[in-house]
Amino acid sequence: MRQLASVQRIVDIQPIPNADKIECATVLGWKCVVRKGEFKTGDLVLYIEPDSLLPFNPWTGEQLGDKPLRLKTVRMKGQVSQGLVLGLSLPQLAPANGQPEGTDVSDLLGIKKYEPPPLPAALAGIARGVFPSFLVKTDETRIQAFPGVITRHADKSFAVTEKLDGSSTSYYWHDIRGDGTYTFGACSRNLDLEPGDSAQWVVAANLGVREALTKEQVDNGRNLALQGELVGPNIQSNKLGLPSVTWYAFNAFDIAQRKFLSHGEFIEWTEKNNIPHVPVIDANFSLQEQNVDSLVRFVTRKSLLNPQVWIEGGVFRPLVEERDPDLGRLSFKAINPEFLLKYGE
Which CATH number fits domain 121-342: 3.30.470.30, 3.30.1700.10, 1.10.530.10, 2.60.120.620? Predict the structure, then answer.
């Protein structure tokens, strides 16, 4: 589970070229600019991840009311800095002081995660219920939060796909009541949507998603759900510059078996059924001799959908589905810092 604010230890401090007053501290796998001499390697500190919303000014303790501070990626003297490192002795951090290393103190400090604005009403659709319990939400963790994953799985091969900045959309074909009556559904990240003319339903019709899922159940007796990203005009500012709204699958989930299809099965199934999937950057990527910095460099590239723009990042999944003690399902993301800096993320 993601820890927005936690007690952590500084594992390294390095100088920043041509910088007299600041240096770069490493916490977990995150690089953060700090004041020179304020911390040393081994210090216990409060680390707050990017995309956190702080209800108080972290330096003065002033409460910010309905205008919380969002932590974004910044660049100082050429050094990318993500998150915030604070000394635990600050009075405003009293609830965190004395907590052991690794403790999540997000709730103690009232820190919440930033959520992007919802889709415009014309695209969002109408809810018929909450997100179905028979599906599994996906929310990949940034590799900086669990850098040990890299060495733990260095012997495995991974597929790396392009992470798209859009709106999470899932489709399913399932016997919800268990009486042999199948239902086709479209879901946003948190809701099951009424059939209609929302973007999710229009795109499903254009791409033949219902027909593909129905055929799979009839031919093979398997009820699948497809998870993907809705992208295009009026969705997250359409950073890919796409001409129309469309959807790209990134997961296929066997509802009855409660398991995801492997990468190879997923690619084969989507291509056989003419369902678009997210672009594959590398179909056989090894984590050997990799670290957080090298993975971030690897995803600092332009999009395969539009080579004029930066990709948001990459999603790394093993070719064979596996579990990890920190992540659960072995799947993580690395985000392109140039994307974050360009779009003020």
Answer: 3.30.470.30
